[in-house]
Design a protein that fits this description.
It is built from eight helices and ten strands. With 217 residues, it is an alpha/beta fold. An eight-stranded parallel beta barrel has the order 1-2-3-4-5-6-7-8, surrounded by six helices. A two-stranded antiparallel sheet has the order 9-10. It is globular, with a radius of gyration of 16 Å. The relative contact order is 0.17.
């Protein structure tokens, strides 16, 4: 079964709705340079505390210092950290040592074939990868939530080349998720804007998304 992570969760009610339809992971977005879904660390902690065992709570962080990531996770108390940018101070081993039992997921932004080499190297040090359509090289970085798809051929190569689970993100919705899963064959899919209306989680869209995903399970 393809796992589903619903991102940009903004309330306990949204979290409950996502879980009701089968989400196995929830994305909780902390401060970002751009993109939707940002909530306070206090709200992230409040939501994370209410999530039942077995559901992954992802803290999305734009921080690039291991020390700052560690401090943020300890405040937010999620069971997973999603690193949306590159670490420039510290390394993954330091992060894992400081946060035992916390899963580490690194985002790889698919802007070209060079993402394959990056993914292979990074995969040696993390618990999972998440492939998204951002761009870290822009003046205002895009670290997710763009609503754009990327080249799924590259994503498929990454899935075939690494030994850790891979989540596929970027522009997914009820209309394209079945094609995406058939083409890329990811461990999981990650969706935000594709199941929202005016920024709010839309039960009709969530239901349709899972229904179409289940046609290829």
């Amino acid at each position: 079964m393809t796992r589903v992570k619903i991102c940009c969760i903004s309330s306990i009610e949204e979290a409950q709705l996502a879980i009701k339809y089968g989400a196995s992971a929830l994305g909780l977005v902390s401060t970002m340079p751009s993109g939707p879904g940002v909530i306070s660390e206090e709200l992230i902690e409040e939501i994370a505390k209410k999530i039942p065992p077995g559901i992954a709570t992802f803290l999305l962080t734009s921080k690039q210092s291991v020390e700052e990531i560690i401090e943020q996770q300890r405040r937010c108390k999620t069971n997973t950290v999603q690193i949306c940018d590159n670490i420039v101070q510290g390394n993954y081993n330091q992060l894992k040592k400081a946060l035992p039992g916390i899963k580490i997921v690194q985002v790889i932004h698919i802007t070209g074939e060079e993402a394959l080499d990056e993914a292979i190297e990074v995969s040696k040090n993390v618990d999972a990868l998440l492939l998204d359509s951002g761009n870290q090289k822009l003046a205002v970085k895009e670290l997710g939530g763009t609503g754009r798809t990327h080249d799924w051929t590259i994503s498929r190569k990454i899935v075939e080349s690494v030994k850790v689970p891979v989540f596929l993100a970027g522009g997914l919705n009820a209309e394209n998720v079945a094609d995406a899963v058939q083409h890329v064959k990811p461990f999981g899919v990650d969706i935000c804007s594709g199941v929202r209306t005016n920024g709010k989680l839309d039960e009709r869209k969530v239901k349709s998304f899972f229904a179409n995903l289940n046609t290829v399970q």
